[in-house]
Amino acid sequence: METAAALPGDVLAAVLGRLPAHSLAASRCVCQAWRRLADERRLLLPHLLPHSVRGFFVNYVDPPPPPTHFFARPAAAPGPWIDGAFSFVDPEHRRFGGRCCNVADHCNGLVLLQDELLHTELYACNPTTRRWVRLPRLAAAGRAFLVFDPAVSRHYEVLVAPVDPPAAAGIKVSMEWPPSRCTWQVFSSRTRRWRPRVFVREGEAAGVAADMAMGSLPYVKEAQWRYGVYWQGALYVHCRGEYVSRMSLSNGKYKVIKSPVDRAECYNKTRSFIGRSGNGVCFASIYACRLRVWILSECRDQTEWTLKHDRDLEPDDWWEVVVKGDHQQIKYTGPWILDDYYDSRKAKRNVDWSSDDDDIICGAEGKKKGDGRSMYPPSFHFLGFHPFKEVIFLTALGVAVAYHWNTSRVQFMGILKPNCHNYGVYDSFVYTPCIRPA
């Protein structure tokens, strides 16, 4: 023990990092110095949260139950089957109520479910271990976000945002928004109870409430200003009015970050999304066939969006892959399929997404830039960012692809059309598994 204590931190971290998961976890109990080293170097993270994409939870617009499906490679290799309908969650309640749940958020392997009728009823679950808990019922519904870092703690928090300007009673159209102080409801798995938490704004507001309402936007079926990203101790929330709120969970401060998309563009059918990649917080916008991607840079009090990609997409090429093949056969065999077709799956050994395995549709080499005119440009939908690579997942015409924004390479994944009638994808969440139970 004395010999180990005398080792430099880098050397000791290298030694501990070579231990198997159970031994590394046990080493954290040896002394406070080892525990701090393992946590600060995040040595357990590769064991608890493998850097792999297991699939997508997809919420559909107005389908019959179940409203959520799981899109993934057919799982022929050993491993748990992911239940996209979450039938293991509160089966007695479902049996007598006959209701289903939508996925409200996902963070590092944990999933937050919301009852489709009682929006104040939430569940936190781990689809890999099938452990779940029912949260105490909320007094009022709101946008719910999940915060979980398995490398730091097994505990998690659920944060529910206050109402947006259009729905908030007594808000004057001329008052600044967001307000200087806002109260969120926060659930902690440590205390198993909700409590109000006040966040104090640092810096300027995004504008006035009347501008943030944005009530005359073109109608779209998919979610707008829906997503949040947990990154390095802060929750970044994409807010109505086209701005980002950075909520610091350590000190109760929050800051308005201007969106890289001008608010006027939203009235011109530009849709925007926030996410996370290996480089940090990302932002994407889609207008017709034009895709832009930014990375957020933060240094002290300065924040800046750096444009990383600006290119027109070619969704007709995506559809051509299906037209040349057998549409029904592709739905059943993939490469990726919805859980509707698991019983007819074609065996494949690789159950994680790989940048080398799926079919290449087109790439930057030899491909002229499109003019933005495609058969159905409004049908684009954002499925999510790859959390560890420079990849964005998209769908158009029911075809799902992985788009590498650093090379403009497009890879065909599969068809996102379930058996039930629906009006398309509402929102979706990239699922990365975690072996630590909820």
TrEMBL record:
InterPro entries: F-box-like_dom_sf, F-box_dom. This is F-box domain-containing protein. It comes from the Eukaryota. It holds the Pfam family F-box-like. Residues 7-47 form the F-box domain. It comes from Panicum miliaceum (Proso millet). The lineage of its organism: Eukaryota, Viridiplantae, Streptophyta, Embryophyta, Tracheophyta.
